Amino acid sequence: MCNLHSNMTTQQAMRQLFDVDAGFDRLGNFQPLPAIFPRYSAPVVRVGEGGQRELVSMHWGFLMPQVSKKTGKPIMPKAVNNARDDKVRHSGFWRASFEERRCLIPATSFCEAKGRNPATYYWFGMASKEREARPPFAFAGMWRGFRGEYRGEMVDIETHTMVTSTPNELVRPVHPDRMPVILEPEDYETWLTGTPEEAAKLMRPYPAGKMRIVQKGEGVKEDPVG
């Protein structure tokens, strides 16, 4: 599971890395994000209606309407920010998004917490000879629209979620159950436009040898390096 990541890549660099034409960059004036939490917006790369890749901002977490068990009245929708790789093809909640609306989630690191009171926060990134370097990468994601009441008003927004898989040897000591699915650049197009069968083959742990722990500590809830 991942509930926190960073994206310190510049807007221009994201366009280059993910092959997005400037005319399809819909982020506006993007500022690098050292900490991205569920229920907040983050950059996402998807294939638009015309077949071109576009860079957009979406709410992190598929919104699921809920009602109070006590009163039966609607309460704040649940934000489902992770999707298990072993459920996306079979669950009715995920299947249509996996088959029709896959996306890339740009990032420079992600965080997992270990222990409690206080927790130690471990930030994972790509391997690099430079200690302060944060090579950009992309998580496998999915997106869908949401129309309904949220945070006290009626909204019509787009939301995204992150796909997770079993952890590799680097992440497992910190989070023994899940880690985000990280894609190789040569697999971006397959994830975005390939068949469900082709995309399913990409849902696997990223090689531990290509990653490293970039920082850790108590209360370290952001990674501003980039």
Structure, described:
The protein has 226 residues and is mainly beta. It has a single domain, classed as Alpha-Beta Complex (hypothetical protein yedk fold). It contains four helices and 15 strands. The strands form three sheets. Strands 3, 4, 7, 8, 11, 12, 13 and 14 form an eight-stranded mixed β-sheet that branches. Strands 2-1-9-10-15 form a five-stranded antiparallel β-sheet, with no helix packed on it. Strands 5-6 form a two-stranded antiparallel ribbon. The longest helix has 7 residues, at 11-17. The model has no long low-confidence stretch (mean pLDDT 95).
Strand content: 35-45%
Q: What's the domain count? A: 1
CATH class: Alpha Beta
CATH 2nd-level architecture: Alpha-Beta Complex
The CATH homologous superfamily is termed: SOS response associated peptidase-like
Q: Total helix count? A: 4
CA radius of gyration is 17 Å
Overall strand count: 15
- The share of residues in helices is 10-25%
Residue stretches low in confidence (pLDDT < 50, at least 5 long) are: none
Average of per-residue pLDDT values: 95
Shape: globular
In N-to-C order, the SSE pattern is: EHEEEEEEHEEEEEEEHHE
Sheet with the most strands, sense and barrel status? 8 strands, mixed
Distance between the termini: 23 Å
Structural class: mainly beta
Task: Quote the CATH topology.
Answer: hypothetical protein yedk fold
